[in-house]
Design goal:
Helix content is 66%, strand content 0%. It has 212 residues and is an all-alpha fold. The protein has three domains: 37 residues, no CATH class; 73 residues, no CATH class; 76 residues, no CATH class. Helix 9 runs antiparallel to helix 11.
Length: 212
């Protein structure tokens, strides 16, 4: 059955679910004239959508999709998602742990998700570190991630130090203005810790990190 052959209610229901129940997207996409749902329809579909998304929250393993599910549930006023995601983090394999932690931060705006991700980064293998890093690249605003980066820069683990500097370079590329006070940050890897300038460069960098 083609879309045009469906009843007006069926079309409206499809539009509602296709847009996660976010009615403004229906209008932004140019389908407002086709959307004719009644308030009672929307109330029923919202319940169905929440039930469906809560189920998917227990099954999805893709971090981006999982975050989208969590965000939509939060938008509709559902509860209990943080607990569900933390439970998946505790019981799941590494792939699920990463996805659940990221979804907790991105989808629910819960800082605990960022904390869980940095904990995973510390002991992950190369493959999973790259996956975690792909999320941390866009988590400049997280205080937990900022403090973890500061910890890596201030510690004696050279590998952690180098990875932290690499992450900072991504943050700077994405938001140059947030590192205006740390013009020498790119020199961190090149300058020895014994160099007289190292301490000043590190201090400038840490100040810029915490300012962001």
């Amino acid at each position: 059955m083609t879309l045009t052959a469906q009843s007006a209610r069926d079309i409206s229901r499809q539009l509602f679910f296709d847009n996660g129940g976010k009615l403004h997207y229906i209008h932004l996409d140019g389908f407002g004239s086709q959307y004719t749902a009644s308030p009672s329809d929307e109330k029923q579909w919202k319940r169905e959508l929440i039930d469906l998304y809560r189920l998917r929250l227990t099954e999805e393993t893709n971090a981006i999709v999982l975050a989208g599910l969590a965000e939509t549930l939060r938008y509709h006023g559902a509860t209990g998602m943080k607990e569900m995601l933390v439970q998946r983090y505790v019981n799941g394999p590494m792939e699920v742990k990463i996805a659940a932690a990221y979804a907790c931060w991105k989808g629910l705006e819960e800082e605990v998700g960022a904390m869980l991700l940095t904990d995973l980064w510390k002991g992950a293998d190369l493959h999973n570190r790259k996956e975690i890093r792909s999320h941390l690249n866009f988590m400049r605003s997280s205080r937990s991630v900022q403090e973890y980066v500061v910890q890596c820069l201030s510690g004696n683990d050279q590998e952690a130090f180098d990875e932290a500097v690499d992450l900072l370079q991504i943050w700077k590329a994405l938001n140059p203005s947030s590192f205006k006070g740390a013009a020498r940050m790119s020199q961190l890897k090149a300058v020895s810790r014994d160099d007289a300038h190292f301490s000043a460069i590190l201090s400038e960098t840490i100040k810029a990190i915490r300012k962001g």
